[in-house]
Design a protein that fits this description.
With 123 residues, this protein is mainly beta. The protein is built from no helices and ten strands. Strands 2, 4, 5, 8, 9 and 10 form a six-stranded mixed sheet that branches. A four-stranded antiparallel sheet has the order 1-3-7-6, with no helix packed on it. It is globular.
Amino acid sequence: QVQLVESGGGLVQPGGSLRLSCAASGSIFSFTAMAWFRQVPGKVREFVGAISWSGTITDYLDSVKGRFTISRDNAKNTMYLQMNRLKPEDTAIYSCAARPGGVRSTWPEYAYWGQGTQVTVSS
């Protein structure tokens, strides 16, 4: 059974930075592909980006390109999301997701999810 646990969320001022972590446990074959999504209540869940087991990164959400960076450390079974130059529009619940096989860009394709961590960007 796969379990994903996010951490690192919190309150940050515009222009600041946060680093989210997603620790995975279970069969490594079930989280070969990992992704970050975010969602604001009442709005559509957005794909932020994804990373393969080998470290290949899919295209990021257009609004975060150049500001967010996804990485993973397979020795620690952990994926990271480094968020820089944060904007109020980045405020959302950020969730970690995983699936076997290759990366996908839509949330229904992911079988495993973490509990989510709140990121609030405000003065």
